[in-house]
């Protein structure tokens, strides 16, 4: 198996996990499962943050997937690409944690920078590979 497949599959699994988490958070409102005694949703405060984070999983990660697919085709500097891919995943998970569990926008921006730079690094490898230079 190509070493970039596992980080890509992990990102897909992370998005799937967030779908499950969002379903659980919406269950009290949608199905009445897990409501408080007064009928309110115990997840009401965090549900919009989970939803926003899930939407984020279809924004910047697109650049990650495309870069990985191009690198898989070119087989150039797989050690660097794999390290950057896992750094991207770590950044996505950390970003989700900060966005869902806190309201600290500044910290969220700092954590986002990790996966932002990792994806840009993957694209540097893509450009080097497609320009004929060893990456």
How would you describe what is shown here?
The chain has 135 residues and is mainly α. The chain has helices at 5-30, 47-56, 61-74, 78-101, 105-130. The radius of gyration is 18 Å and the shape is elongated. The protein starts with a helix and ends in a 5-residue tail after the last helix.
Separation of the first and last Cα atoms: 21 Å
Assembly classification: single chain
Gyration radius (Cα, Å) is: 18 Å
**Total strand count, please?**
0
The profile of the biggest β sheet is: none
The secondary-structure class comes to mainly alpha
What is the molecular shape? elongated
Number of H/I helices: 5
The helix content is over 70%
* H and E string: HHHHH
Low-confidence stretches: none
Share of β-strand residues: under 5%
Question: How much is the average pLDDT?
Answer: 92
Key terms:
135 residues; mainly alpha; 0% strand; elongated
Summarize the structure.
The chain is 74% helix and 0% strand.
Summarize the topology:
Layout: H1 5-30, H2 47-56, H3 61-74, H4 78-101, H5 105-130
Helix pairs in contact: 1-2, 1-4, 2-4, 3-4, 3-5, 4-5
